[in-house]
Design a protein that fits this description.
With 116 residues, the chain is an alpha+beta fold. The protein has one domain. 34% of the residues lie in helices and 13% in strands. The strands form 2 sheets. The chain has a two-stranded antiparallel sheet.
């Protein structure tokens, strides 16, 4: 039985590279503007790392995608991102990122909503 995420639950990004987190969430976000001025190319880890290296940890809008993300800690409040990109989307993207990186459930914090 899987746990249902509540609107107040934060999603753990502990143990993940924040550049990977930013790139994955950016690439999964919907473009909310139909303007042709925005580049639709997926964000790479290198591009994301460049943004983080400039001490940017909060991302509101970027290239027409509403992110509403604060990457300053080891957890993400998914409310703003999920409101604009679909309920449970942050948890889904982070779960997929963990699976792709081969992390096991035992490496997640005990109270993580991503534990099975």
């Amino acid at each position: 039985m899987t746990q249902q995420m509540k609107a107040t639950d934060k999603v753990s990004i502990a143990g993940l590279n924040k550049a990977d987190v930013l790139a994955a969430l950016y690439n999964a976000a919907e473009t909310h503007r139909l303007d042709l001025e925005f580049d639709q190319t997926p964000m790479t880890r290198t591009e994301a790392q460049g943004m983080l290296d400039c001490k940017q940890v909060y991302f509101n809008y970027f290239n027409g995608r509403m992110l509403k993300l604060d990457l300053s800690g080891s957890e993400i409040d998914p409310l703003g991102y999920d409101r604009n990109n679909g309920s449970g989307k942050v948890a889904e993207v982070i779960k997929r990122l963990r699976e792709n990186q081969g992390m096991r459930n035992r490496e997640l914090p005990e109270n993580s909503i991503l534990r099975k």
